[in-house]
Structures are given as structure tokens and as C-alpha cells.
Amino acid sequence: MRDIEDLLEGMRRTPNILSEFVLAVPENKIDLRRGEGFWTVAEHVSHLAQVQPMLLDRFERFINEDHPEFVPYIPGNGADEPDTPPRMNMNAALDQFAHCRKNQLLLLESAQEITWKKTATHPEYENYSLYILTRHTLMHDYWHMYRMEELWLTKNAYLTKMP
Description:
CATH architecture: Up-down Bundle
Mean pLDDT: 93
Radius of gyration: 17 Å
Order of helices and strands: HHHHHH
Shape: globular
Number of strands: 0
Distance between the termini: 33 Å
Largest sheet: none
Strand content: under 5%
Low-confidence stretches: none
CATH superfamily: dinb family like domain
């Protein structure tokens, strides 16, 4: 856990990196669907914005509960959920992402060392802690940003096919 400050710094930088990326994508590529089962760049941005309140809630639960128990969040898995995230206005999505991230960082920056070591139960993971959730959040951000860049720039023959 010697990299907590590095993880927090990465989380601090993500809203700007995401915003600059979205501004760089040509408008005609934002909603381009590259194939069956592929999300668009706009859907990835929308998803990133839409999951931030859930992540904020998880961070709060680690702060406030002794041993929280979580349920998996799998988009498109519920009976009423669409296969793709509802598309948000890009400015609204970026604002929501940045606002939630700021609140997440306020919580995390004030967390005590013992809180970083708290464990939780999560059926998807063998181990789960505030530290792991923080690292997971950063990796989740960057996985989606990598995927958006791939969807925008990669030629069809090299595009990663998702199951």
C-alpha cells in the first residue's frame, strides 16, 4: 500500500485526461458503433459518469462500516437494463464524472491508515478492501479510456473483439 498517493494522484488527473480525450474525438466518431456488441465512445464516457455515484457510495461505506458487504454491479445484467449505457450529453457526463471524482477524493484523502486496510465481502473478488477498490477504480477508468481510444483509432483488422 505504498502507492496510495500515486493512486490518488492518478484519480485526480483522470477527469482532465478524459475531458481532453473526448474533445479530441471527432464528432462523427463519438457515436460510431464499430460492430455488434461494441459500445460507442459516447457510451463508454456515459458509463464512466454513471458508475461514479455507485463508487462514491462504496467509498463511503468503507469509511462508515466495519466490514461492508457489496453486490456485483454488472451493467446490462438486470431485467430492465439495456445492453449499452444510456447515452448522456458529453458535457454533462464529463461534469458528473469530475464532480463525483472530487467527492471521492475528499473522502479518500481523509481516510485513516486503518481504513485503507479495512476488508469487505464482494462475491466477485477473493480479497476486497478500500485500497483494492481505489486501485480498481483507477484501472477501470483507464481500461475504458483505452477502449475508447481503440474504438476511435484502431483499424478494423486490429480492433479487439470482446465476447
